[in-house]
User: Which sequence fits this backbone?
């Protein structure tokens, strides 16, 4: 081999070796898809839209939300788990899709190890919404009615395995009432039926219910929080409503497919942190009764430690 040809071959080899590094440095070079595993309008969807808009401003590429509803969120998370691990497909998950689902759907096509955590986005407060003309003035009267009419009260949720379904299970475990659970493909369809009077009550989060309660199209029964929320000052806490065992805290976190390169995950994590510093973003989430992640909660390691604890917590709840 001539010296000139040898130099050309070495240069080509060096260029090929440098390609992955250059690709990582260029991330993101195109728009990113964020899978939202529920229908538009629910808590996860609202939070996903806010965080996607702010995060997209940091790396300079749009983050486009894609709603993939079904099986309490498992359909969307399955798609995310199977996506190419290059950072261009991520997902927003919650206690339903990334914790309780493993007990509810033992044949899931993904496991906790199918994902690389990006970071926690926000925490949410469980609540029970009531149709505005339901014949009960408060939580105690609602429970009395439900006990006097077993199975008659309809209680909607966003699909078996969703975080809203978990709220229903927590509420029923705390109250020991017998109701008819009604499953939807997302929180928004359930809330729409509540406001239309087709449902008696719905399990949701304060984030999702706040607007309809404030607008008078639904009523707040109780919120599972230690104190009343500033955004829902007239909605009693579960303790005030005589249901002290109804306590909990939901969360939303971002995930990428397993084997997504570390530098790409770090870039996405940095974008999440930067987005969370935006005053308008923080104010909007606060208005929605969501608590923004802080400190180590942003760390992927925090989410990695949180998920198995939540899996076990809901395994105990759902098998009781």
Assistant:
């Amino acid at each position: 081999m001539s010296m000139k040809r040898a130099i050309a071959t070495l240069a080509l080899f060096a260029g090929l070796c440098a390609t992955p590094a250059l690709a990582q440095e260029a991330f993101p070079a195109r728009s990113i898809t964020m899978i939202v595993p529920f229908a538009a309008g629910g808590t996860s969807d609202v939070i996903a839209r806010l965080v996607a808009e702010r995060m997209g401003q940091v790396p300079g590429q749009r983050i486009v939300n894609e709603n993939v509803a079904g099986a309490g969120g498992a359909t969307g998370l399955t798609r995310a788990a199977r996506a190419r691990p290059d950072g261009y497909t991520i997902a927003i998950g919650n206690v339903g899709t990334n914790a309780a689902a493993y007990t509810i759907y033992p044949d899931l096509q993904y496991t906790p190890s199918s994902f690389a955590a990006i970071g926690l986005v926000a925490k949410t407060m469980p609540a029970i919404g009531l149709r505005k003309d339901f014949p009960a003035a408060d939580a105690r009267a609602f429970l009395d009615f439900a006990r006097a009419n077993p199975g008659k009260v309809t209680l909607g949720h966003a699909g078996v395995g969703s975080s809203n379904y978990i709220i229903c299970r927590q509420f029923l475990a705390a109250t020991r009432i017998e109701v008819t659970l009604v499953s939807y493909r997302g929180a928004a369809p359930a809330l729409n039926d509540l406001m239309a009077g087709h449902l008696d009550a719905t399990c949701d989060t304060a984030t999702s219910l706040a607007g309809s309660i404030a607008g008078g199209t639904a009523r707040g029964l109780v919120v599972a929080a230690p104190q009343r929320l500033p955004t829902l000052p007239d909605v009693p806490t579960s303790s005030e409503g005589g249901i002290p065992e109804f306590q909990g805290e939901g969360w939303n976190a971002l995930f990428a497919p397993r084997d997504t390169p570390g530098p790409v995950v770090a870039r996405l994590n940095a974008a999440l942190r930067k987005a969370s510093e935006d005053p308008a973003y923080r104010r909007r989430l606060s208005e929605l009764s969501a608590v923004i992640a802080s400190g180590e909660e942003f760390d992927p390691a925090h989410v990695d430690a949180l998920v198995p604890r939540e899996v076990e917590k809901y395994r105990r709840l759902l098998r009781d």
In short: The domain at 126-223 is CATH 3.40.190.10 (D-Maltodextrin-Binding Protein; domain 2). The chain has eleven helices and eleven strands.
